[in-house]
Structures are given as C-alpha cells and as structure tokens.
Design a protein that fits this description.
This protein is mostly helical. It has a domain at 28-70. It has two helices and no strands. It has helices at 28-40, 58-70. It is extended and about 55 Å long. The relative contact order is 0.06.
C-alpha cells in the first residue's frame, strides 16, 4: 500500500519567518568531504541549498578571507 501524503498549512503566526534556524552542529572534517563529493558528482540537490547561510567562527572567516586574497587565480 502506497504511503499517503498530507499537506499541512503553516501556522498563521507573525513570528514565523519561513527560514529554519540551524539545529545541527557538524565539524568541517565531516562536512567538507560530503559537500565536495556532491559538488564533484554534480548532485542537483546541492543547488537547493546554495543560498543557505552557514555560521562559522570569526577566526575561520579571517583565514578564508586571507586565502581568497593570496591564492593563485585559475
């Protein structure tokens, strides 16, 4: 028997922004290989999240900014 899907209306609450808040913590060591593999193999689902924001530490941000400035252009 096939599963039946149900559609639920979102709450009519003005505090609901429609943007989900981060709920899972994951290390870069675990995340980067998965993202790289999805990117390499062209998985379409990755594009669903392309506009999502991620939260990183300030020191990682500074390192990434420096890397952006010093890496050779392709």
């Amino acid at each position: 028997m096939a599963a039946r899907l149900r559609v639920y209306r979102s709450p009519e609450d003005s505090s609901c922004t429609g943007v989900s808040q981060p709920t899972v913590r994951i290390s870069l060591e675990d995340l980067l290989p998965l993202i790289a593999l999805a990117q390499k193999n062209g998985f379409v689902w990755l594009q669903d999240f392309i506009d999502d924001e991620v939260v990183i530490t300030e020191d990682l941000y500074e390192v990434l900014q420096a890397f952006r400035s010093y890496r050779p252009s392709a």
